[in-house]
Design a protein that fits this description.
By secondary structure, the protein is mainly alpha-helical. It has eleven helices and two strands. It has a two-stranded antiparallel sheet with strand order 1-2.
Length: 346
């Protein structure tokens, strides 16, 4: 029994629409929370332009996710309502991969991936103290991903009638796109985590015992978990495509909002994490306030806020008991001045 008989294309498309709708709802909620963190905290605490970049990037992702979902809903109405009147019409509609709506949704997906990969590369650039050479390999991978992705879109637009998504002329483009995107994310995540760990080792001796010792691990854990979510989804997409299964349609549709979810989760985790830490410490200030108020120590070209230093003072007291007892036995002369110890002048 073929995969088309086991898992028909129409069934895969309707499941993909359902899954994408659920994940888009989650993305919308997370996007709203991220916007509140970025804009509200920027307004109240005067954050840097990085927050504005995060806001613009997350907004672009949300718009792309909305457009992608709108196209999928339009295609569902067209396939199940208009074409569904005839026997086999729904499968025939979804098999037309050269349809303009199919090409458009693939272009949106490629663009979404490139936006996410570009910001990951920018984050790598900032963490590595804006050293341009660290972007050489990620930039090459990013350009190659763009060529492979948009090249696949062109091939899809030129495809003939029929389910040609698994055609031999498309497979090199699609395989290259998935592999390059996965490599870019894994490489950037590894380099960022390595840089954070290396920087923490250098400033460890300037930190007081127990002062935010595990903060860098929280950042690394957040980034690794986010990269693991996206990498697992992308690996599933690559595996289902290589297996020639229609389940790849589900994977490719859920990746659109999932990319935005992963991106906003990092913003929320870092933003709310620092807010909670500040509240517990009793400062009541945000990250920018705390970093701005503290003095900075420059080490190897990097600026780090100075941490409190614990100082222990030991006090030793020695009493000459004999002197005290001798003083106590002395009686002042009658009529003498108690403070001066002298008799008043006559």
């Amino acid at each position: 029994m073929s995969d088309e008989e086991q898992f028909p294309l129409a069934r895969a498309e309707i499941i993909a629409l359902f899954m994408e709708s659920m994940l888009f709802g989650a993305f919308t909620v997370l996007y709203a929370i991220a916007v509140w963190i970025l804009l509200y905290r920027e307004k109240v605490r005067g954050r840097s332009t990085t927050n504005r970049m995060l806001f613009v990037t997350s907004s672009v992702m949300w718009v792309l996710a909305v457009a992608h979902l709108a196209i999928d809903v339009t295609r569902a109405v067209e396939g199940f309502v208009v074409w569904g009147k005839n026997p086999g019409g729904t499968d025939a509609f979804y098999s037309r991969i050269s349809d303009p709506t199919e090409v458009a949704k693939n272009v949106l997906y490629i663009t979404m991936t490139l936006v996410a990969d570009s910001f990951v590369s920018y984050r790598l650039y900032v963490v590595w103290n804006r050293q341009w050479w660290i972007l050489i390999v990620p930039t090459i991978l990013l350009l190659a991903t763009a060529v492979a992705g948009y090249g696949a879109c062109v091939e899809i637009g030129l495809a003939k009638e029929g389910n040609a998504i698994f055609a031999e002329n498309l497979q090199p483009w699609i395989r290259a796109f998935f592999s390059l995107s996965l490599t870019t994310n894994l490489l950037a995540t590894f380099l960022i985590a390595a840089r954070i760990m290396w920087s923490n080792r250098r400033v460890r001796k300037y930190r007081a015992s127990g002062a935010a010792a595990g903060s860098h691990w929280e950042v690394i854990e957040t980034m690794i978990q986010s990269a693991a979510i996206y990498s697992a989804a992308l690996a599933s997409l690559l595996g289902t495509y290589l297996a020639g299964s229609n389940a790849q349609y589900i994977c490719v549709d859920i990746l659109q909002p999932l990319i935005g979810i992963v991106f906003t989760l990092i913003i929320i985790r870092v933003g709310l994490g620092f807010t909670m830490n500040d509240t517990v410490s009793g400062g009541g200030h945000g990250v920018s306030d705390r970093a701005g108020a503290a003095q900075l120590q420059t080490i190897g070209g990097h600026s780090y806020p100075l941490q409190p230093v614990a100082i222990n003072v030991s006090v030793s007291r020695t009493h000459d008991r004999a002197s005290f007892e001798g003083y106590d036995r002395k009686e002042p002369p009658v009529g003498s001045d108690i403070e001066s110890g002298k008799a008043p002048s006559e």
